[in-house]
Amino acid sequence: MDVANIQPDAVNLPGLQLSSIGQFFIPASASLQERRPRTLKHGDTFAVFDHNGDVISGPGSPEGIFHRDTRYLSHFYMTIGGARPMLLSSTLRDDNATLTCDLTNPDLFDGTGKMVLEHDLLHIRRTRFLWQGHCLERLVVRNFNDQPREISIELAVDADFADLFEVRGTERGKRGTRNPTITTNDGVELSYTGLDGCRRTTSIRFEPAPELVTAQQAVFRLQLQPRQARSIFIKIACNCEPDSSPTAAFFKGLRDARRALRLSSSRAAAVETSNDIFNEALRRSVSDVYMLLTDTPEGPYPYAGIPWFSTVFGRDAIITALQTLWLDPTIAKGVLGHLAANQAIGVDPVADAEPGKILHEVRYGEMAELGEVPFRRYYGSVDSTPLFVMLAGAYLERTGDLETLRGLWPNIEAALTWIEDYGDRDGDGFVEYGRMTEEGLANQGWKDSYDSVFHADGTLAKGPIALAEVQAYAYAAFSAAAMICRRLDRREIASRYSARAASLQFAFDAAFFDERLGTYVLALDGDKRPCRVRASNAGHALLTGITYPERAEAVVKTLMEPSSFCGWGIRTVPSTEARYNPMSYHNGSIWPHDNSLIASGLGRYGYRKEASRVFQGLFAASTYIDLRRLPELFCGFTRRRAQGPTFYPVACAPQAWAAAAPLSLLQSSLGLTFEPENTQITFERPVLPAFLDEVVIRNLTVASGAVSVALRRSGRQVTVEVLDRRGGVNVVSLN
């Protein structure tokens, strides 16, 4: 991500100043796990609600409706007769299309203390969704009393127009101007003119018109006969004109939103298994991935996560595309196209940009526009560029789409030039990072906490830093480039990249593998001293194939030791290391995406049983988590019998690469690969984890064909049966 999360006590470490940690940290003052919010997203708009469907403002609150990095609604609070309704249930549809909150009335009293309505006589259902910059809601109130009732529904509203970085905790010395609120008989308009000169407007309309509308509240008085229901429709528009009535907009938008979700997800293969709980987890994973997809001119692009990272990130989207490539290659095509269209073409120190470099992050808010944060269009990640080439190669191997790769070749070549020239800062053949200004990110690998790269004694490494996994990605990039060039009939260039990959593999083994550690060191610091720390980063070397076969067993053994594999997954840093802290962001926590990539590497070297153990651990964790939704990360405490995992307080959920992790883990266990040139799908030594006896995959595409297959446990082996076939697809099972 763009910034490290820190623990509240981190700022009290001796000699440590907040400025040395980073300007853009996310303070752990409000636990997302404690709130367990309900989230919706469409396009550049996302929303965070509490279980009642309210938005409650206050210090540290992440709740609200956000559009292009600005909070357009910071308070939206419903009461009935002046009291807050009681929660019955709060659910998201399986496809994430709508949030439904079922509520009822508490005991209601008049001014003298006399009870005027007993609890549980009124049912209130709030149905809400996002569509094209709008939040649309139907509020239905039904009277289950045997007497007529007159009730009052109050809706308090406000908008602070806070920049997302303000919501995350960054203080601003000066803000723009809040404009006077405009009220009408059926709504209210809130607006703000920022220091960037941009006017941001929130328009709220109600149907039917409330009895009373003020700048802060709308009040409805409803007459309800026994069993009668009344509806109130609400339309909240973020920076766009309300062009239809709330009622018409609700029904049309609901139809269009569900249709769009069905259309996009229909591209994907469908998976069903013998485990109903895992089926729930899979449905949520797929739904979360498709909810996070945003249409760009180049195709669908997965935004990174809610609430803090609902925007374009290079690294996150590439990894998500790799994880879902077997399921839906269209995602990878969209990611490649959008990142190519936004590739850096010049040197810009403020943006950490250099020719050929791939995006890290894009922001649209006021603070980014003014340069108060450097992320308007920011390139400060060392791994996005080699990962871009790596994805291009994987996409070609999955689809055989040579036409798209031919169009992308100038961007791929520019990325490779960056790796060899700008990425290799000292000419030693390795890719290092170091920010170009003090405002840039200090650590630019995926573990970007201020303390994530350190020596065995805990001393922080000084840059420029060469991370182990980045060299692995560079190796994969050169290998992918060689394969692409061969397919493009550029044999001489292919030979050069093949030689470059082999040279890097040899140098990496010599400089990074440590016999005493039994694995690769975490990094080389600016003096080329190895950071002799065991870490999950070594698993990414397995992922890319840079590991020599004779090293694989030692690396796998180290990753699967109890100090590293805690039962839920592989820790970012094992308990043996100086900075191990299971509650930290990067030094002992469990990241689902990290584990899924490691599992892919385990499968690559034939360690499918170990990959299956990782799969089982993360699935077990998901059974304890709300909505079966794997979060961005959770704490790395050792798994205990009959107890769930310990949650990380400000982890995003849904998070794209966490949502895609179960899909990637399934592919790794099944040994699923594709040969589009032969219209062939292969299952190499498939393994089913203990919680699965059968997996059925439908509409699994390759080239112009598709198959449906069933994999079943049979003794110690897994059998593969073709259920349906079109287009002459050849299915091969290698046991």
UniProtKB/TrEMBL annotation:
Domain Putative glycogen debranching enzyme N-terminal: 40-234
InterPro entries: 6-hairpin_glycosidase_sf, 6hp_glycosidase-like_sf, GDE_N_bis, MGH1-like_GH
Residue ranges occupied by any Mannosylglycerate hydrolase MGH1-like glycoside hydrolase domain in the UniProt entry: 316-624
Protein name in the entry: Glycogen debranching enzyme
Organism annotation: Pseudorhizobium tarimense
Lineage: Bacteria, Pseudomonadati, Pseudomonadota, Alphaproteobacteria, Hyphomicrobiales
